[in-house]
Amino acid sequence: MRVRKPVRTLLPAPRLAIAEPLEVREPVDAGTIAENARQLAARMLDELDAVTSFQGELEESIEILTANDENDQRRDAMMKAVSLPARSQILKNLAASLKVINETAAPTKGKKAQAQDRATAVGRKFGAIGAPTRTIN
């Protein structure tokens, strides 16, 4: 009768990699992060523009590349990736991302503080009226 050895004895002992110390970096401020995100969004918009500008050539290239495929599954997936609905969704997502980036980059006061500022504004239509100026003798 054969007795099976435990699996742990059959496997080689794991080698422990010594991790190198992480490089300590300066904290990045919100303005730098926002600017990097804006630049990335601009590059992505350029790519979207290129896809839109060369739509016909891309579709022809897809047709040529997938001409010998057994089924149309790959061609359909590639055509869907460069289609108008896909491109418009990308544009919508980029616009929403830029909006969030711009809103979070510039720290603003909370809603309550903004309402108080509006209420105490002088010279505005709904600003504070101020102290009475008429005296009664």
Describe this entry's structure for a reader:
With 137 residues, the protein is mostly helical. Helices cover 58% and strands 0% of the residues. It is built from 6 helices and no strands. Helix 2 runs antiparallel to helix 5. The model has no long low-confidence stretch (mean pLDDT 78).
List the helices and strands and how they pair.
Blueprint: H1 7-10, H2 30-53, H3 55-65, H4 73-81, H5 84-105, H6 111-119
Helix pairs in contact: 2-5
Structural features:
single chain, 137 residues, mainly alpha, flat
Quick overview of this protein structure:
The protein has 137 residues and is mostly helical.
User: Ends: how far apart?
Assistant: 120 Å
Computed CA radius of gyration, to the nearest angstrom: 31 Å
What is the strand content?
A: under 5%
Mean pLDDT figure: 78
Main sheet record: none
